[in-house]
Amino acid sequence: MNLGVFNRVNLKDSGGGMYSEWASLSTLVQNGSEDSQSVLKKFHPVAGREVALSIVRQLATNLGITQAAEHSPLTTDREVQWCMEVICFGLSLPLAEHDTVRDCVNVYCEWLSALYSSPKISVPRPIVEDPNFYARKIISHFHNLFVPRKGEGADTINRQAVLCHRVLRTLQQVARGPATLERETWESLLLFLIGINDALLAPPAVREDAGEQLCERVLGVLLEVWLVACERNFPSPPLWRTLRESCLRWRHRLALVEQWNRVCLALTAKLLQVMYGPMFPELKISDEDAHLVPQTMSDEAVAQSWYRLLRTVGDPVDLCRPAVVSQTQAFLQYAIASQNVVDPCQHPCLQGLPQIFLKAIKGIAGQVDAFLGVSQACCWEECCITSVASASGGGGGVAGDKAGGKDQPQPSPTPPTQRRLAKSFSVTPSAVTKGIPKASLIGLTTSRISSNPPASTPNSGPSSTSSITSVTSLGQDIRPPLAPGRPKCNSILHLFGEWLFEAAFIGTDGWSQNLPQPSGASKRPSSVLVDGPSSLQETTSEIPPSLGIDRYESGRAEAMGALCRIFCAKKTGEEILPVYLARFYQAMYHGLKINETRECGETLASILLNSADLFRLDLDGVQVLVPAVISALEIVLPEKELKLKSNAVSRIELRRASIHLLISMLTLPLNLQNLPIKELPSLTAIINQEKNPVTFVQLKPRLMNLLINALQVESDPLNTHMLLGGLMLSVQDSAAAEEVEQVTQPDTITSDTTTNLLSSVASDSTSQVSISSDLRSLGDGSDIVTLQEENSAFGKYFDSAHALFVRATYLVCHRLISSWKTDLNISLAALELLAGLARTHIRETDALECKRAVKWLCDYITYQCWRPPPAHSKDLHSSIVAAFTCLTTWLSAHPQLLQDKDCLTTVLEVVELGVSGTKSIGKPGEPIKMKDEKELKPASMRVRDAADALLTIILEQVGYFPSACGAQSLSSLLDEVLLLRHCNSWTGGRVARQAAVERFRYFVAENATMLALLEEPLGNDQDPQPTVTVLIRGPFGRHAWTMQLRHLPRHKSSVRSMNSNPGRPLPLAEATPRPDYKPRFFPDNVDRIPHCRVDESIPSLDAVMNDNDTVKNEHHLLSQLLERQINLESKSSNDLARNADEKIEECTPPKICHEFQTARLFLSHFGFLNLDQNDNENSTTSGLTALDPSMPGFCTDLESLDHTSPRTCDTVHVFYVRAGQKSAEEILSNVLHETSVSPHFLEFLSSLGWPVSVSSHAGWTGHVSTSWRATIPVTVPQPAHSDHGGALYNGDTHILYWADVSSEVAFIVPTHLMGNMSSDSIDESNYNSDISGGQAWFERSVSESAGTRSYSVNQSGSQNSRTMSLDLDKQPPSLPGSGPSSTSSGDPIKPRRSTKHSLPMQTDTRILVVWLESLEDHLQFPIADLLSCTHTGLEHSNGVRPSDVQVIFLHSLSSGLMRVRLQGPVSRINLATPLVDGMVLSRRVLGTLVRQTALNMGRRRRLDNDSYHPPHVRRRLKVQDMVQKYRCNLSQPELLTFLFSSPQN
Question: Which tens digit of pLDDT belongs to each residue from 1179-1229?
């Protein structure tokens, strides 16, 4: 179909347009044909009535309706024609003679069967012989039946309607059926249908008249039969001209526009199949409407019929002008006949013109959507169905009438109502009874914006993002996608632009409601505005107030929405004619104007809802609209209770579309800086020409204030997610711009202004720092210079990255604590934003703000942990884990925070809460609990693991990352082989790993930390000190330590005495004088005390011995022993006295020991050996387990442990797609040469990470086979890679790498496809076998499970030692698998994570970053074909589906900015930030934000994976697995004996 031909046709001219050279038959239609007049009209009505009654009754008896059919007595043409004169008169009788009129209808309907191959027997023979001639006469006579009778009642009109339906049904059957109609018959039929429509519809509508009853039916039959004629006998140009002129007289009837919409949409559906094929999105219409267009109609006939019928009703904008619509003969007759001659436009029936105009524009907008490929069923209901309430009945339609077959009087217009419901999907209130909410159907634009199913109400947003409905699109547009094969915008504007632009300009300056523009007038709005309103506009006093231009606002809004959708459908590189762009910008400028009430009108809402992509499409000059759009957004976004004129507009959807506009403008001020914004021509602009132009950088304060205020009041989860992404972009962009310029803009924040600056979070809107009220009218007459002077402080403040950092931190933390904590996805997005803020380099970062952010994060964790047990769920624990991760980022980025005592205390209290479930210092009023008194009940194992990780990072990494090894490794790069090479005993040559391992002693402490002890001093140590080299393999990495037992500090131990024999002093030979005294046991005066009788009460020893022989014998034995001892001591004393004069021998020190059992010394000094235990206890329970390194498999498992990273690892594969490329081979070959890619792409790659060599890299390389294996760099010279488009980083020799304290990311640019990668995952069995049966953990809340208390078997019966956190992991040898825990005094039981099979260590999240030259290519990006080059060795056995892949599409705009499009699986937790679908960002922050988004995608995927274990847990489980496999079952004596022996050599 040649649209150019259609475009050259000017149909504005009422003279006929493309039919101007053809005669019009309108006079014939209006005055009636002579063929429809009977000769009986010449006689008195009574005479004619008598003749008709008798003749018609006789003819009706032969039809077979009441009795058997008989052959007609009429045998000649003259007889038949005479009878037809009588029947013609009978059809014009008053409806009081209903039976006669009905018989006339029955006779003619039966006689029309002569057109079929087998006519009924009652048909006269002359008619059978020449059916077309008589059919034309019959059709012309039927006209009399449809002529409205004056003064008839409602019941009579209903009877007339039933007869009319019978006739129309018969004519439909004739036209559609197998009847053979000649061309003259077709023309007669079409003229008849036009005539009866004109008779019924041309007069002004009166309630309950025949026209009101029949209008929908007669119009429907006219257009349906017309379509059949287009297929079988295409109507002649005079007929087309007559139809068009007649329709202009019926425009005051709503049914005309509805039926016109219905037919045009049916033709459009067929036309789309013809033009674009079956792959183009189908236009969804009802099945009955789909059958309006005959299936056998030729393609050319479809195109011609569609365009001609489209232009049949004239210019829809004329419906806004009652004076134009009422300029018909019928309206003039009404005006003259009225009591007081009034203007025709005063007729009450014209009150429906606004609704008719809205329906017409909706029909046009519906066709625009059909060509764009975004059509939906519910939007056709709006433009094809009347809004009058009707009974909810089904059935009907043409088929229903055919099946009925009986004409029964109906008290109400049931056939039209039933047909109305059957032919389209109702938007009437009865639609609610069908399960379709009215709000989803009668909405002005909601139905075209929302893709929600009809059963959901668009006004009600999701309550939380935990529901699927709020996150089904990964932040993508919720609107249906545009068809890839859609026509160009110019083509659609050639067809519909003239009408839509005129409709968009109604009510603006220079537009007249009284008379249409002259055909020669200029269409350019600028000229109309310059000429002023006096050139065209006339007095409007005659227009009724109820038809004021404001009543047509809904139609104007629909037109603006359609225009926005057309221009937002622009493809990459597509050109739109400047004249269209100019008119569109002018229409937008008028539509975005704000009224005095600051209410969001329908036009403004429609513009915002439909122009989300406006600033993402490289539209030439679109930046002129930025101030007007910002002013409009300041009406919508900061308001919590938005005032809307139309209740059909969803506030959530409106805010979402506004946020899309906002996030596409955030980078404009810093990108375009001082570029002035030219104002569109307008009357006010001409008057105020001296006003200085606004520059883009002046808009930044407004944008930032708008963003903050919108986030403050937003309640919808998805909208909040988008705003958080925009806030992160703003802070990063400002910080990057300041860093590049090396100029930090003035930022004066004092203690007084800080509270004021942060007051935008306050609930009182009057205290907000909102400059929207001051600056929102930029461009509307405000003096920019004055505003600049008044708000210079605001400008300085808002332009500072530090100020944005302060506001963002305060607002996000505040809302996270107050209102977002119960929603997982918003919490994750807020925590991701806070983590991004922590990483942002801002030179004036305020330590107080950082401390406050950390305090808020700790409060958030505390609140979540202290929520009541019913609230504890997987989502809650995921948010706590994410908060710990965010806290890790803050402390790593700002290590000075831990120098603050209060901050350190707060953080460690939260760590304690995460590990144990309670704080020692609990809630106010609770007693302080010492740690050894607490029972360990963490919120969940995941929370405890996250707290453990944070504690270790605080102790090991904060302030020390990156280490001497660089960011590539948290572990020492030394292993057994390298250490052995540095020993004195190494003789050179290669050291086998197995041999090196066997030189070490291996122990596992606390079932979590493996100690490898080497008892040889290293070669660089010359001191003969006890030396031990320890390789500590713990959950958080491998560390090498060399320890020496020194008795002096190093600075003193190096000083040696020159004299090898220092000598000793001579001993003193003088004997010590011994005192001579006799020991006494009682005081001296005891003998002088006189005795008394009591003294005699104790018998003497002799008396006792005399009385008892046993005592006497014992006394005798004791006396002998004493005597013997006295002799011995006397002899010894004499010997000492004799030898006193001899020289005493001097003591000499023993020889220096050069061999030490340093392993035993180390273990003993560090408390791993406890000799105070009971003898009956097994030594393996003392916290130390010896391993046997000589057992087969030990060396392999040890290497597997070393290849298990203590950090998470992610891989991002980057692709470059040139315009139009679809095959994987073409895409991969782009990066081979620098000339094949954009220089901006190479700049982007360099910003993602730092290049590293795979062979010498100790971190993650993108594949497990080469990761965590630091090797000696190969000395083979590497080829020069200067000419490459990123291919150097394909993973073969180099990659791009980035890491922080807890994450690793490898960026790979693939260059070749690979086959099945199962053979490449050679280490996958080792990598994934870190979880033995019965030792993997499942997620369970410790406080709710049965066995939840730690178990320690090294307790004696009376000892109850404190359970350490690592004791939770101990696996007692005889522990029942389940069973309720005993009382609190019983032995605690370990929470067990058990699975029966080995689970993969990592969550394999496929993340692709695709650079597109043409945005449309994202629809055909071959994800499935490219999956083979994205293998990492972490694949699950079932592989990865293309639908599971996360894709970040980047499209470079001509302005130098980048547009983002996200694509990924539908999941509860996939909306990772900071990138948001549709965001426009600058290149200076592109790499940073893409990297952060990829990191967050991986983290969210891991949070959502029930079987995922953090890296340190995987390492701990691996150690436990090795303990089970290689432990030495030694008792305590055997262990000590083992330590005293020498290791194997």
Answer: 444 578 888 888 888 888 888 888 888 899 999 999 999 988 888 888 888
1485 phi, psi to nearest 5 deg: -115, 5
Average pLDDT estimate for 455-471:
36
Three-state secondary structure call for residue 747:
coil
How many CA atoms, within 13 angstroms, populate the side-chain half-sphere of residue 1056?
5
Exposure string (b/e) for 137-157, b if CB count within 10 Å is 16 or more? bbbbbbbbbbbbeeebeeebb
> What is the average per-residue pLDDT within 388-393?
35
Q: What is the mean pLDDT of residues 1356-1374?
A: 37
Q: Side chain identity at 1263, as an amino acid letter?
A: H
- Cα separation, 1201 vs 1006, in Å, equals 17
1257: left (phi over 0), alpha (psi -120 to 50) or beta: beta
Contact partners, residue 724, CB within 8 Å, separation at least 6: 711, 812, 826, 829, 830, 832, 833, 1473, 1474
pLDDT for the residue 1468: 65
Q: How many other C-beta atoms can be found within 10 angstroms of the C-beta atom of residue 1309?
A: 28
Output the six-digit token pair for 845: 């970062």
1425 touches 1419 (CB < 8 A): no
Tracing tokens 């002899």 back to the chain, one arrives at: 1131
Please give the helix or strand (H or E) that residue 776 lies within, else none.
none
**How high is the pLDDT of residue 161?**
78
User: Quick check: 722 and 666 in contact, CB under 8 A?
Assistant: no
Pairing of strands 1407-1412, 1446-1452: parallel
1161: region left, alpha or beta (phi > 0 left; psi from -120 to 50 alpha): alpha
Cα gap 562→364, rounded to integer Å: 8
- The pLDDT value given to residue 1127: 92
pTM for the model stands at 0.78
Identify the top-confidence range among 465-474, 849-858, 1084-1093, 1384-1393: 849-858
Q: Could you tell me whether strands 1458-1463 and 1037-1044 are parallel, antiparallel, or unpaired per DSSP bridges?
A: unpaired
d(CA 952, CA 1501): 24
Write phi, then psi, for 740 (nearest 5 degrees).
-70, -45
What is the rounded distance in angstroms from the CA atom of residue 1371 to the CA atom of residue 1390? 8
- Tally of CB atoms within 10 A around 1342: 21
The answer to whether the peptide bond before residue 462 is cis (omega within 30 degrees of 0) is no
Q: How distant, in Å, are the alpha carbons of 116, 181, 193, 703 from that of 131? A: 9, 9, 19, 77
Q: Which residues contact 602 (CB under 8 A, 6 or more apart)?
A: 444, 553, 554, 556, 557, 645, 646, 649
Write down how long the chain is: 1545
Dig out the tokens for 169 from the structure: 């049904």
Burial of 1432 (0-12, 13-18, 19+ CB in 10 A): buried
